[in-house]
Amino acid sequence: RKIYRGRMASSSVNLEDVPSVDLMTELLRRMKCSSKPDKRLILIGPPGSGKGTQSPLIKDEYCLCHLATGDMLRAAVAAKTPLGIKANEAMDKGELVSDDLVVGIIEEAIKKPSCQKGFILDGFPRTVVQAEKFDEMLEKKGIKVDKVLNFAIDDSILEERITGRWIHPSSGRSYHMKYAPPKVLGVDDVTGEPLIQRKDDTAEVLKSRLASFHRQTEPVIDYYNKKGIVADLHAEKPPKEVSAEVQKVLSS
Fold first, then answer.
1. How far is Cα 195 from Cα 174, in angstroms, rounded to an integer?
2. Which of 99, 100, 109, 177 could staple 164 via S-S, CB 3.0–4.6 A?
3. What is the DSSP string of 1-39?
4. 8 Å CB contact between 105 and 111
5. Could you list the active site residues?
6. E strands, the chain, where?
């Protein structure tokens, strides 16, 4: 293990000011984590397939860091890191951020202590070229992806799942017309205020997002299938059953 000989005061948080209960909680968490196996995971699946439900559970169980590329890009831009500045220049011109830049931002992120036991990568790679560049970067570090969890689900089920979602904007409470309907159609149970549907939750938006998923991202599953590291999950099942599948895959 590396020993860091830096002055504690130079870090952004002065540990003397951190409540003891928080320090102990973090210490116990790290001790529990030290016995966990390292895992480097990629989650792939169309919008609404349940990746967002499962990733925090996997993250906590295996002490991994969660790398959502959209959030990381925004954070790098806000922090004005050298890569963030480059990404911002591209976005200002209305261009897509290059694959090399995104891989660079991921490379920076996985150096953090929170990523010591591994990571969950969500939303990347979206194309085979991105997967190849990502693998090249990992190879230079002498590490590789352990498992790709493929949240396999039929388009028609997704349409029912997503177009049935309604939100209460001010509280974030969400309802589903089939699975968790409000007591009165179209209004929030608590406040009686009207519910709205997110712009992304319409059939038209979903169709175009699914089309680009099938076109660009399904070949990524084939790419990792050839490496023998893909686990197909039955993502149409209830979340608890999907969690059980994930546990089975990751503990084997």
1. 9
2. 177
3. -------GGGSSS-GGGS-HHHHHHHHHHHHHHHTSPPE
4. no
5. 51, 126, 165, 198, 209
6. 39-44, 65-68, 118-122, 147-152, 165-167, 174-176, 230-234
Question: What pTM, to 2 d.p., does this model score?
Answer: 0.80
Q: What is the mean pLDDT of the chain?
A: 89
User: What is the pLDDT at residue 149?
Assistant: 98
Please write the tens of the pLDDT for every residue from 190-229: 999 999 998 888 888 899 999 999 999 999 999 999 999 9
Using a 10 angstrom Cβ sphere, with 0-12 exposed, 13-18 middle and 19 or more buried, the burial of residue 138 is middle
How far is C-alpha 152 from the chain's CA centre?
16
Mean pLDDT computed over 163-173: 90
Cβ atoms 145, 119 nearer than 8 A: no
pLDDT at residue 3, rounded to an integer: 40
The structure tokens listed for 116 are: 């010591």
Q: Are 123 and 74 in contact (CB under 8 A)?
A: no
> Percent helix, strand and coil across the chain, each rounded to 5?
50, 15, 35
Asked if residues 215 and 127 have their Cβ atoms less than 8 Å apart, the reply is: no
At residue 8, the pLDDT reads 41
Q: What is the mean pLDDT of residues 51-74?
A: 89
pLDDT at 134 over 70: yes
**Ramachandran assignment for 150, one of left (phi > 0), alpha (psi -120 to 50 degrees), beta (any other):** beta
In the beta sheet, which residues pair with residue 194?
187
Helices 69-78 and 99-109 cross at an angle (nearest 10°) of: 80
Contacts (Cβ under 8 Å, ≥6 apart) of 92: none
